Amino acid sequence: MNLIRIALSIALATATVIPTAAAEPAGAATAAAKAAPLAGSRLVPADHPWIQYFGRWDFTDPLAPAHGWPGVYIRADFEGTSLGLRMTDDAYYWNLFIDGEPVTIFHGSQSGTTSYSVVEGLPDGQHSLLLTKRNEYWWSRFTFNGLLLDEGRDLLPPPEKPARRIEFIGDSFTSASGNEYAYTDTPPDPAPYTNIFEGFCPITARHFNAQYHMCSISGYGMAVDYKGDATGTIPALFDRAVVYNSAIKWDFSAWQPDLVVICLGLNDYSGLGGWSGGVSAGNQTLFKNRYHEFVARLTGLYPAATILAFAPHVELLQELTAAVVREAQAAGLGRIHYADFPYFDTGYVNGGHPNVATHHQIAGRLIAAIDSLRIWPEEADVTPPRFTALPADEPFTLYSPLLELTVETDSYASVRWSEEDRPWAQMEHTFATTGRRLHRTTIPVEHGRSYTLYLHAIDDAGNATASSAVLRFTVDTTRAVRRWQELEYDDSAWKTGPAPLGSSAAASPRTLIAPVDAAYFRRTFTIEDLSAIAGMGALIKCSDGAIVWLNGEEIQRINMPAGAPGYSLFASKSAAMSSMVVLNLQNGLLGKLRSGENILAVEVHRSSASPWLAFDSQLTDNLNRFYYKLGSEWRCWDGGAAPEEKVQEKTSRVQPGVQPPGIFLLEQNYPNPFNPSTLVRYHLAAPAQVRLEVFDLAGRRVALLAEGLRQAGAHEARFAPGEAGLPGGCYFCRLLISPGDGPGRTLTRKMLYLK
Q1: Do 269 and 405 belong to one domain?
Q2: How many C-beta atoms lie closer than 10 Å to residue 73's C-beta?
Q3: Which of 450, 477, 504 represents a domain boundary (last residue)?
Q4: What sign for the dihedral angle of Cα 361, 363, 366, 367?
Q5: Could you tell me if 62 and 139 are in contact, meaning their C-beta atoms sit under 8 angstroms apart?
Q6: Structure confidence at residue 40 as a pLDDT band (50, 70, 90)
Q7: For 721, which DSSP code?
Q8: CB 202 within 8 A of CB 261
Q9: pLDDT at residue 291 above 90?
C-alpha cells in the first residue's frame, strides 16, 4: 500500500479520484489534477472470462455490460504496476480496492465511453481488484467496458466465487443512502455521501462470505411509494435486469439465492398516511396482502431459498410484517421467518437514514437472525470464538472503584469471567450484556488491590475458547484519568494567547509552530448564579471545522464528519465557518453547565485543501452578558498530535493515606439536570449489602444500578435512561444499605432527566 501512487489523471479525460486516506466523502473532493497517462494502456475487454461480475448485470452487449440496481461489483486478478478503467459512466461513485486495501473513490467525469487511468506505482507482480458501486442511480444506461493494464500484462485466473448467495430487497435503508454524510439534513445530492459497501447488506454478506444481489430503490415500497403511488413498488420492477428498461428481463434461473432478505415498509408507512394521522385498517390490510403476494412470488422463483422478513424500527410495520410471517407459516410455508431491528442511538443522517455506525448495528441484528436459521448446515461450525478486542494487553492501573469492562469476539458468543482460571461452564460471572460480538459488564473493585481476571467465550454451536483471555490490573482510586476537555485537566504547559490563534496573515497573533491537522483550545468561565441562566450562546469562528466540548462532553460538530475525533480527521470541506452553539432547556444542553467554574474546549480541524488554521469565539447568556469576547485569551495545544490523557491526583474523595469516610452517604448525582447519562456516587463506612435503584414519579422501579455486597469506600454507577427508552422527567434514586453490624438505612436523591 505504501508504494501505490494514485494517478489523478485519465488517458482521454479527467476523473475525480479521491485518495481514501483523506477520509472525506466523495462530494468533498475538488477536481483532480491532470498527470501523465498510463505508460501502457492494454485494454482487456469486458467479456474476458476472468472478470467476475456480481449483482444484476445486463449482458445484451457483452463488451458493455450495463447495470442499474445498486450493489453491483466486479472482481479480477491482474499482473503489472498500473490499472485503468474504461466506462460509460458519469453518475456513479466506485470504491476501488487493490489487494484487499481501499485505494480510491472513483467518479467518472465524461458521459461517453472513456478510458480512465486510476492507479500507478504498484509493486510489479500479481494483484487483486475489487470494484464496488457506492450509490444509487437507475434512470439511464451506464456500462463497464473493460480494464486497462500495462502492455504485455494480462488477467490471471480468479478464485471460485463464494458458494453462499444472499439477495437483499429493500429501499433507501437497504441502499445505504447518504450513510457517510455528517449531518441530519438532506444534501442536494446524497450520492457522493453514499457508500453501499458500508451498508448493512454488504456487511452481512461479507460476514457469511456470500455473494449478494441488491434489489432496492430509495422511496419505493411493497404496496406504494413514499407519496402513495401504487406504481412505485419493488415488486413492480423486480423482474427487470436493469431498472430503467422494462423490456430487459432478469433470468431468475441463472442465479438462485440461498437466502432472500426483505426489508420494506418505511415508504409504505409514509405513503399510506403513517406520518400524517396513522395507517387505516384498510391500508394495513393492503400492505399485508401485497406482502403475501410478493412472498408467494418469491417462493415460486426461488423454490429452495429461505425468506427472512426483516422489519424496520417502526412498531406498526413490525406488527404487520410479523403477522404476514405467522399467516404464511400457518398456511404451510415453513421457509419464511421474521426478524426486526430497533431505532439505534448510534446516529442517523441524510434526513433520518442510518449512518455507517448504525448500519453496522443493523447488520449485527441481521447476522444474529441468520445465525439462528442455520441456512448452511452442511458447513458445521467447529471454530471457537476468539477475543478480538480487550481493554489492555499489558497490566494496567484502574483509577475507579468500578471496572467498566467491554470486550469483543469475532463471532456471536456468550462471555463469562472469574478470578480463577476455569472452563467456561465453571465460571461464576456472566457479562451483563452478552450473546453478540460486543460484551459489557461492570465489576466493583477495591482500592489498593491487584486483580487477575480470566475470560472465556462460547458460541451458539457450543464451541468454547481453548484458553482464557487474561486481564491484570491494580486499583488506585486516589488518582483519576483526565482528558484534555475536562475542567480538572492540567493545561499549565500549553501556550496562551488571544484568538485568532493561527492565521494566514503574518501580522496576526500566532501560536502555531507549523501547519497542523488540528489544534486544541481551552477556556474556563464562571457562572455565579446558574438559576438565572435561561440560555447561552457560544459563537465559534474557524477556518474549516470544529468540535465543541462543554465540561468534558461533546455538544456540537461544525463542518466535521461523524466518527471518533482524531488528529488527522479532516473537516468536511474547506470553508470559513461561523456557527452559534446554543445551550438551552429545549436542546438539553443547559443541564451540562455547572455553578462556578466551567470549561469550553474546542478542537479546530483543517480540511485536506487548507494548510492553516484560524479560530475565535465568544460567549454570552440570555441577558447579553459576555463571559468572554472575541480575541480573548485561550490556552492552545498544537504540538503535532492530540493532547494525551493525564493521570492526576483527585481534588476530592479518597486521598492518599486517608481512610474511607466514616459515614454512609449518597451524593447528589452529577450532572443534574442531565442528558444523556448521569453518575451516582455513594460511600460506605463499612462493608454492606446494597441496592441502588431508580424510581419514576409513579413509584415504579425503572432501573437497578447496583446490588450485592460492596466493600467500604467510594462507589459509583451510571444511569442512562435513554438507553432503556425512558421519558424525560423527574426520577428518584434510592440507596438501601444493610451493614452486617448495624441498622439498615435508606438514602434518596431526586434527579432530573432533560430529553
Answers
A1: no
A2: 22
A3: 477
A4: negative
A5: no
A6: low
A7: G
A8: no
A9: yes
